[in-house]
Design brief:
Mean pLDDT: 76
Largest sheet: none
Low-confidence stretches: 1-8
Number of strands: 0
Helix content: 40-55%
Order of helices and strands: HHHHHHHH
Distance between the termini: 22 Å
Strand content: under 5%
Radius of gyration: 14 Å
Number of helices: 8
Oligomer: single chain
Length: 113
Amino acid sequence: MDRYGKGGSYESFSPSVSNRLLQKIPIFPELTTILTGHGKTSSYLYGFGLIDNPMCPCEEEQTVDHLIFKCKKLINQRNEMIQQIKSTDSNWPAKNETLIKNYENFLQNLLSP
């Protein structure tokens, strides 16, 4: 299901506490769920037996990584996010640490299919 161990999902976005404290990122529920890997993805809900299958409407397992990097249903939002990230002289696919530095666009695109 999830490729990260305990706390690993968050660490992939912000590898050190001191680095995270230097970032001026407002904390709100949607961001926290993505950073911790506890978002309302089908894979997460399926793991708790709350839904019958972990699949995305695009017919692949729906995880946070899937939504960011692969989901066919989010191609327009992803393209917009890619343009913004590339405009900051970063490469695509971006590391999670780069995504969080551009969190406003990242989160807006991820949560508004």
